Amino acid sequence: MNNTLKPFVLIFIMGSLLAVSSLARLVHAASNDALAPKSQVKDALALPLHTVTIATVSLEQSILFYRDGMGLTVEGPLKIASELKQAQQTLWGMPEDLDWDTYRLYRKGVDNAIQIRLLVLSKPMPSIHDSWDSRELGPFSLGFPNTDTVALDKHIRKVGFGALNTLESYPIPRPDGSSYQIDETIFNAPDFNHGVAITRGNGMAQLGPTDESGLGGPAYSAQVITDSESQLTFYTQVLGLEIRSDRVFKSAGDKGAMNLPNGTEFRFAIVYSKGATTGHMLFVDFHNIQPIKPKNRPSLPNLGLGMWSFPVRSLQTVLDNAKAYKADVVSVKKSISDPLIGTVDVATLRAPNGFLIEVFEVQE
What we know:
Protein name: VOC domain-containing protein
Organism: Paraglaciecola agarilytica NO2
CATH class of the largest domain: Alpha Beta
Structural class: alpha+beta
Radius of gyration: 22 Å
Largest sheet: 8 strands, mixed
Low-confidence stretches: 1-28
Strand order of the largest sheet: 2-3-4-1-13-16-15-14
InterPro entries: Glyas_Bleomycin-R_OHBP_Dase
CATH topology of the largest domain: 2,3-Dihydroxybiphenyl 1,2-Dioxygenase, domain 1
Distance between the termini: 51 Å
Helix content: 10-25%
């Protein structure tokens, strides 16, 4: 071999070995992650959670938290055609005397992060929640994976928002018996919502992709529920989602991120679109404490997180599933052109707890 070529050959061989080693580590990490998909995207009916709709009368506070705190980009107010707004009134069950401006909040550079549709209402409406208490039933949070929750915790507090508790660090078991560390803070966001900063350590992939600065999400959304079986059956049978993890946890109590009574136990189910690695839902069902029931329905037009929107491969299949399940269909198929979800056929229905679900058909 020509001696002048040896350094380049060695570099190539070493590079190949490093690439194989890196790939092996990635494969091992995925196989050692209970949340890694075992299903395939091609089998999904509903795709990952696409849009979360929040109703507010506090635009300034919303921008302060989501843009200045969590680093999202804000667009709006968007131009909404009168025909679209009329259709949305029917789809979302909005009163005829209620108007709103629409804003889009999203993570620039992270295409598969969930976007927020922020509706700034023309007048106050009842609030979905009465407080930030973790025991309140209904939509609970948006999750923001990032690579340094310690730093993000300090930043959000400096911006001016409190949290349910101090940052909590705790271990999560892996399939091989080892564990990895979670750092988590649950912040008190506007409209009695929660924004969760969360980092998975020890080489684990974050719960959604992050941008160059290490910020990601929204990557998931959570609810506090009762009657897990009917709720989870709705999401799995009507939308075709899958339960990826289903455990009973004992809370860290007044030292934990949720700041619950000491000794609290709850079922914790994590639901994904088939084959997906982000855009998922978390469901908390308390076992040994009584949840708090808010006065108002967990849905638009009430203030707070009032709707989840899912792309689906077949709108008719979802509606057929809803009929078989005897789900409450708010609006049958409408054809709309929406700046947030595109020119699509869309329908709305309710989960068993009254939460509003928007589904729109996508062509792939």
